[in-house]
Amino acid sequence: MDLTSYAELAVLLVNSGDALDSPDGARRLLVEAGRADQAERLTRADLQTLRDLRHELIAVFAAAARHDEQSAVDRLNALLIRHPVHPQISRHDGQRWHLHLTEGGRLSDEYAAGAIMGLTALVTELGVDRLGLCQADRCERGYLDTSSNRSRRYCSERCASRANVAAYRARRRDLSGAARRA
C-alpha cells in the first residue's frame, strides 16, 4: 500500500481553497483526487465534514511548519480517534491483493481515513519535518517533502520560481542602492 498517495489526499484537501464552497467544487476535488467513483455519493454532511477536516489538517501542517512536532502528532492522534481507520484487503484492476483504507461508510469518512492514515504513516516513517507550508509570500499551501535531502520549502515549482526571482530582484536593488551611496 502506497501511503504517500494517501497522504497526498491530505495535501489536496489542505490546498482545496474554495472548492469546498459548493457540492460541485467538492466533486471536482474528488475527481482530482482520483475518486471520481465516489463523487456522486457526496452529501451535504460529507461536505461539512470535509470542510472541518481541512481546517484540522491545516493546523497539523502549521504545527509542522513551526517545528512543533508534539502539537502536530497530538493533532494527528486526535484525528485518528475521531476518524477510525478500517483497513480492508482488496483486489481490483488486475492488481494483486493489497490493503485499502475504508471501503464502506460515508464518503467523507473514507477520505478522512485515507488522508489521516497517510499523514500518520509519513510522519512515523519520515518525520514531522516532511510536512510544511509554502514559504513563498502570500502562499499558505501545504506540501509533503519527499525529497532525499529534506530541502523542499515551496508548494510548487511556480512558488519556488517566484520566490527566487523576488530574492534576486531584492539583491539587485540592494546592490544598486549600495553602489549609488558609494
UniProtKB/TrEMBL annotation:
Pfam families: ABATE, zf-CGNR. This is CGNR zinc finger domain-containing protein. It comes from Sphaerisporangium corydalis. Transmembrane segments: none annotated. It comes from the Bacteria. Gene3D superfamilies: Jann2411-like domain. Residues 130-172 form the Zinc finger CGNR domain.
